[in-house]
Amino acid sequence: MDRYKLYINGKWTETGNWDTVTDKYTGEPYAEVALAGNAELDAACAAAGRSFAQTRALSAFQRAEILDAISSELKRRAEEIARVIAVEGGKTWKYALGEAARAHETFTFAAGIARTLHGETVPMDASSRGGDYFGMWIREPVGVVGAITPFNFPLNLVAHKVAPAIAAGCPIVLKPAGTTPITALKLAEIIEQTEWPDGAFNVIHGSGRTIGMGLVQDPRVAKLTFTGSVEVGKTIKQHSGLKRVTLELGNNSPVVVDETADIAHAVSQCVMGAFSHGGQVCISVQRIYVHDSVADEFIDQFVKQTQALKIGHPLDQDADVSGLISVMETDRVELWVKEAVADGAKVLTGGKRIGKRVYQPTVLINTRKEMKVWSDEIFGPVVLIEPVSTFDEGLKLADDTRFGLQAGVFTSRIDQMFASIRELNFGGIMVNEVPTFRVDQMPYGGNRNSGIGREGLRFAVDEMTNIKMVAVRV
């Protein structure tokens, strides 16, 4: 097995302790990664703090050139990195390769933001007391960014924290997900070859309780950015003090399909949105509400396309679905479906486990809000479909949730489109598209229990910079 060291203060660091990363389809050992403790966390935060004087002094041109260099190398090494994503993350090849391509774009977008980051003048003479003043505000980097990232996008969700930090001029301490740390270390190999200062990018692998909470509470960290569960997000908020915090949390993404929708298009998009990466995406399609006049047609097509999905090893280029991230998560998904069935839900297809880590793509009907598969985030290959008598009823059911990340609607009526924009309390409304849709320069984030703040390069940079007001008496 290959062994991977931590990346701290511009050096590859052993700790004496090694953690095994598994192939998420077979469960077999894949590689070993050095395991960090408090000493390594302290060294990473100290290095990042020392490097801030250098990162904040880099010009916009220099920061953009660094980001472009990272982007180019990601593009060159896309297949190599996609292979790591597939094996350590269980993501099928086509989606792993797509993630590598998206990360390349994410760094490219960040380079554009670095080149155009600016403030504005302020019309001081608009005040009766400001006539003798020239006013402007500028943006400056906030300081060390602590980034905690999830397993499901081990490259592109890392990129959405690292790229804007570099664009803003902020050093980074990154704690990737414990199940998928190798991809982040591959990114460190790339960043090491650029002009980004030593100590300004650090990757530490360790437990959430030790390394994660240590990063949250370290006084040298000025800004925290986290993607993960609601429960952990709340804990971070409670212990972060006066740090700036961006939280991208859960969802149980709804879709509403009205009788005027292109049903074939809606079905194909919803199948992709429900089962890509085994439903382990914050914006995976989970709840579908279909007008009852087209519900039978929609369900029939949806079940047929679901049954056509191929299950296999992530490196099988024809595979659509693979294993879930852990046996524990497969246990949970299986339990939630069994509970729903015991309470009256009906399985139209799937509903069975294959081995320890694979759960069949599953379609449920006759579900109710009291069931976990309806009210919570299942984060697995399970979708429920329910008929509704009106589009408005579908919107009300879609919005009846504690979450609010993204929602999708399919309709040919412009009044229905605007009704959904008006009535749905979500951070993003995707029209004639599934909530799983995202391009990397758009604002992305949730309302209610789905988070605080927004990602997307320009919006993340705003959250990683301070506004400095300058007033000059002339």
What does this structure look like?
- This protein is an alpha/beta fold and 474 residues long.
- The protein has 2 domains: 273 residues, Aldehyde Dehydrogenase, Chain A, domain 1 (3-Layer(aba) Sandwich), CATH 3.40.605.10; 188 residues, 3-Layer(aba) Sandwich (Aldehyde Dehydrogenase, Chain A, domain 2), CATH 3.40.309.10.
- The chain is 40% helix and 22% strand.
- The strands form 6 sheets. It has a 7-stranded mixed sheet, sandwiched between helices. It has a 6-stranded mixed sheet with strand order 10-9-8-11-12-22, with helices on both faces.
- Helix 12 links the parallel strand 18 and strand 19.
- Helix 4 packs parallel to helix 5, helix 9 packs across helix 10 and helix 13 runs parallel beside helix 14.
- The radius of gyration is 23 Å and the shape is globular.
- The termini are far apart.
- The model has no long low-confidence stretch (mean pLDDT 98).
